[in-house]
Amino acid sequence: MSTTALLKIDDKEFKLPVIVGSEGEKAIDISKLRAETGHITYDDGFGNTGSCTSAVTYIDGDVGILRYRGYPIEQLAENSSFVETSYLVMNGELPTAAQRSGFSKLLTQHAPLREGMLRFIQSFPRDSHPMAVLSATINALGAYYPHLASNNHQRDLEHFDEAAAIAISKVRTIAAHSFRVSNGVPFNYPRPNFGYCENFLHLMFSEPYNEYIATSEVAQALNLFLLLHADHEQNCSTSTVKMVASAGANLFASVSAGVNALWGPLHGGANMAVIQMLENIHADGDDGTKFIQAAKTGKGDRLMGFGHRVYKNYDPRAKIIKASFYKALASLGIKNDPLLDIAMKLEEVALSDDYFISRKLYPNVDFYSGLIMRAIGIPSNMFTVMFAIGRMPGWIAQWREVAQNPKIKIYRPRQIYTGKTIRNYVAMDKR
Ligand code: ACO
């Protein structure tokens, strides 16, 4: 196989190295292109640009493959938990029993927030968006734990386990506390004897007179939701984390930037859009048929939760989450939900319709995840927050790759300037 690519510009030829990943993905290395040719590449939206090498996640969207550290998502969903998968994603290997229990202890130890952080969260207006509270409070972790946020990667890496456990454990507490503040109800304190997901549900929903004890099906559905979101290689928020990290920034500053990127509706907001779509269809008295007809003309709204930039096959996460969804519904005693009926109708029609088949539009993970969270009682403005909790181990793992890279260069793309060419300053009275 050729290990170089040949580029011809005018009458000059340049040899560019070809690099090959462990799954055979090929890339033309253009890192010396500008120095040697005076040209840069132009790739609006980075659709063809490999921004880094990474050993965390492998995706083949054409056939619907997703693997964390080489393990198929289906096997992890079947056998693992969010906490164990987080360890795998961050450290590269499944934990031994001792490593697993050490990690759990760290998570338990770091679940509560310091009093100052509680007051910080309480100081936000009641109608604050929980994503604003989440990103601000995660960033503030750097102020509360300055020894973990030195902005010197070597020093920060010496405390990696502690910083990672703080981020993973506290993101859950901060998220639940922001929900409690927005509802004007007091915080709950984490219970050391509860698992990660059970604890989150307790922090969200327990009342002084009525402790919330999650059923195993509901805890399992939440576990799966988080596990399925743990990493997704170089997407918008992860690239943002790496961009910030490349300047030397500490873990908390970098992942809080990831939260902000995720807040955008094109990235983390699709699960909420699915529920809004279903509510609109229901309010219109439609069973989904009219909506699909309109979506096919290209003039109506898109079928939210269908299609994916990378997956041109069934999103493997959608298949897994759908199966657990029905178990959770049964456990919650939900039988007659009109939105669920509409969702099932939309899915049935779309999967047998040539418009969707020919365009390779299949359900993505968001089609079901919004429904699951709604069934659990999580309000729709918290959906993106849930995504952020799930994605935390991936952001941390990808931050670590940057921090550990001795040859790391600050991420600094170039541009093609299209503005005015040089001109002279015009005095105020001449404008
Ligand atoms: N409903 C109806 N038609 C669609 C849909 C949809 N959901 N998605 C794509 N199409 C059509 C387009 O109109 C286009 O049709 P045309 O060829 O006749 O012009 C064709 O399919 C290809 O569309 P693109 O936008 O080029 O596909 P792309 O792969 O770029 O888009 C995207 C992927 C943005 C996810 C798109 O499918 C979409 O908008 N889906 C709905 C939103 C959604 O669910 N987003 C969540 C993504 S998953 C995640 O972020 C975790």
Task: Explain what this protein looks like in three dimensions.
By secondary structure, the protein is mainly α. It is built from 19 helices and six strands. Strands 1-2-3 form a three-stranded antiparallel beta sheet. It has a three-stranded antiparallel beta sheet with strand order 4-5-6. A hairpin with a 5-residue loop joins strand 2 (12-20) and strand 3 (26-28). Helix 11 packs antiparallel against helix 12, helix 11 (236-246) packs across helix 19 (383-404) and helix 13 packs across helix 16 (338-351). The protein is globular. The N and C termini lie far apart (62 Å). The model has no long low-confidence stretch (mean pLDDT 94). The structure holds acetyl coenzyme *A. Acetyl coenzyme *A (ACO) binds next to helix 18.
Keyword list:
single chain, 431 residues, three-stranded antiparallel beta sheet, binds acetyl coenzyme *A
Topology record:
Elements: E1 4-9, E2 12-20, E3 26-28, H1 33-37, E4 57-60, E5 65-68, E6 71-72, H2 73-79, H3 82-91, H4 97-109, H5 115-122, H6 130-144, H7 153-158, H8 160-182, H9 196-205, H10 216-228, H11 236-246, H12 251-263, H13 270-283, H14 289-297, H15 316-332, H16 338-351, H17 354-358, H18 365-376, H19 383-404
Antiparallel strand pairs: 1-2, 2-3, 4-5, 5-6
Bound molecules: acetyl coenzyme *A.
